[in-house]
Write a structure and sequence with these properties.
Number of strands: 7
Mean pLDDT: 89
Order of helices and strands: EEHEEHEHEEHH
Radius of gyration: 15 Å
Distance between the termini: 25 Å
CATH architecture: Roll
Number of helices: 5
Low-confidence stretches: none
Strand order of the largest sheet: 1-7-6-5
Helix content: 25-40%
Length: about 130
């Protein structure tokens, strides 16, 4: 898990999200509501493909507009197999880690690659990318 993850509020603009991603050197941000509850995740790719490439202005587009579906997350007390199962079964590359309803970290495909065996990484990639 990568600790120290920051939220972006759902009503912030995508240009602010892009600036924050640059400052933090990350490619994704969890999106929260006013109560710091997870609404979804916005990625750098989302900003390009779902906003800029569609002719929309990131300065006028809110993060909430890109959040789709039910946000997936894992409890901080979950073990590695639970996290992998969640990521594989929903074909997601990033998984927010929540403790006591607060964001405490993020598991990304980079963490998976760094901390698992080659066989486990291969199985993860097969499930997340091959479908």
């Amino acid at each position: 898990m990568h600790p120290g993850v920051r939220w972006i509020y759902r009503e912030e603009t995508l240009d602010r999200a892009a600036q924050l991603m640059r400052e933090l050197d990350v490619g994704a941000l969890p999106v929260s509501d006013q109560n710091e509850r997870l609404c979804g995740i916005v990625t750098d790719r989302d900003i390009v493909v779902k906003c800029v490439a569609m002719g929309h202005d990131p300065a006028d587009t809110r993060c909430a507009e890109l959040c789709e579906g039910t946000p997936r997350w894992i409890d901080a007390n979950a073990d590695v197999s639970e996290a992998l199962h969640e990521m594989e079964s929903h074909q997601i590359k990033r998984l927010p880690v929540i403790e006591n309803k607060k964001l405490v970290g993020m598991i990304s495909e980079a963490e998976v690659a760094r901390h698992l065996t080659d066989d486990q990484v291969a199985e993860f990639a097969e499930h997340v990318y091959a479908r």
